[in-house]
Amino acid sequence: MLMNKAMGKKGLMLFTALMAVVLVVSGCGGSGEKSGSKKENWVSIEDRYTPDANTPAWQLDKKEETTDLTWYVNADWWNTDFGKDVVTKKIKEDLNINIKFITGDDTKLNTFFAGGNMPDLITTFDSNSPVVQKAATWALPLNDLAEKYDPYFNEVAAQDTINWFQLKDGKTYGYPNYSNTQEDYDSGNIPAKTAFVIRKDVYEALGKPAMGTPEEFRAALADIKKQFPSLIPLGFNSIGEGTGSLGDVLQDFIGVPLEDENGGFYNRNLDEDYLTWVKAFNTVYRDGLISDDSFADDGTAFEEKVKAGKYATIMLDGTPQQGGNLQSFYSNNKGKEYIAIDGPQSTVGHAPTLNQSGITGWMISFITKDNADPAKSIQLFTYLLSEEGQMLMNYGIEGETYQVNADGTVEFLPEVKDLQMNNPDTFKKDYRMGEFMFFGHDRHKALSGDAFPDAIKQMQEWGKGKLTPHFILENINPDQGTPEARSLTAINTKWNTTLISMIRSKDDATYDSLLNEYKKFLDDNNWDKIVEVRNEKMKANKEKLGLK
């Protein structure tokens, strides 16, 4: 989820890598090819155990030797340690496995398909990629794995999620983490991850100013610059291939509609309400209230400034991901901690439609056809999806790291809580609760106030009632390798540079020229055909979800 700094160059590199994946994966066979086109390593469990629909297979398996698995995660930032912290040490012991994690980017992912030397497990992040769409050519179907080796998998996997990831052959090959259904949203157990935050000492010194209108927003930031000259008045997530928290995050914040009046695709980038706020950001930039560094800072630089409290206000996406940095500042600067306030609001009366993880989830994990022990691997999936695995990943081991109270709530033991509060880096290294997140789910975090650091709880409280599922907009981009997909790549790159340039415009004429140039770019790059594809996919999503 971290973004790259060099937009144009990186965009081209990513496009090139993805095209290579299209060619390589396509080489495995067309969409009509049977899932058995590549040799499948189905192992015998005759001497190990007899599958039981009522018992997790990992509890039945009598295999004595340790199973070694390689697990590729398509993210350079993933922590590759295994067996050193409380969470992964317990997984290692319970399942008698050892995992060697490999990390990389799309280019490295492509080399596995080009070279034929596949890892046992693969986790990727783009459900619309050709790698995922062609999973039948290189992965084992979870339906068959469950039937043959571990029918208890069907007890812990969400059927709505299984159906959502079903391919044309009627089988499901990948399973995600943080896949939230409508039922999950309705439960109220999913916390918001977006907030407009301000340092508490700044907020109170300014008399708790309203910042809901562009005029109020500009005035408050100007007062911050006068009274707190050492602070950066306004910050936002790092800008990379995307638009940080100034794009769809801001759109959700002010409630830009998800679809047009006919239920079709709506270009939210050109919504008048949103553009009013983009112009407001341009105005405060011209006032010297946004640092030029904010457009160049990478994720690390942004995080360091959050940790040090350098920003007076932040349009923030991913409060859990920034939880450690926010907690560090919170613990060391009582009374100055960041708090959520209403911040920018719709100029036309729309309520916020904050997004959270949808039914597609985030990290999608697969068991490859080259897997050394698919029986043990589906046991691992079942284990992590089960109540036992979910509690381990979120809270550790009962009696060692947490206790269950009489009312059913969960809390960390005092020494563990103290470490989480005052030394989050050591907490992450030694315990890894909340960080080893394959198949993780928000509903288990609702069991305890300790699931998230104290620094973001007020932000999550502020977000209650403001979440809206974006299911209809999931996976609606044109299929990669199509002319429409190539056009959309160019359009997205154009929008990223246009939005940043609009915010940094020196005058109204430049701002207007950039916006008009972007609109013309849409007309010149198959926008109408892209909208047609998106309309078709939105319609299919609604049918899949049972929506009219």
Structure report:
The relative contact order is 0.15. The protein has helices at residues 7-27, 86-95, 106-115, 130-133, 142-149, 153-156, 159-164, 182-187, 200-205, 214-227, 248-253, 272-286, 293-296, 299-308, 323-332, 374-385, 387-395, 414-422, 424-430, 442-445, 457-462, 483-503, 508-524, 527-545, and strands spanning 67-73, 97-103, 121-124, 174-176, 194-199, 232-236, 311-317, 338-341, 364-367, 402-404, 410-412. The chain has two domains: 57-179 and 359-396 and 433-438, Periplasmic binding protein-like II (D-Maltodextrin-Binding Protein, domain 2, 3-Layer(aba) Sandwich); 194-355 and 452-545, 3-Layer(aba) Sandwich (D-Maltodextrin-Binding Protein, domain 2). A five-stranded mixed beta sheet has the order 2-1-3-9-4. Strands 6-7-5-8 form a four-stranded mixed beta sheet. It has a two-stranded antiparallel sheet with strand order 10-11. Residues 1-37 have low confidence and may be disordered. It is of the alpha/beta class. It is globular. Strand 1 (67-73), helix 2 and strand 2 (97-103) form a beta-alpha-beta unit. It is 43% helix and 10% strand. The chain contains 24 helices and eleven strands. InterPro entries: Bact_solute-bd_prot1. It comes from Paenibacillus solani.
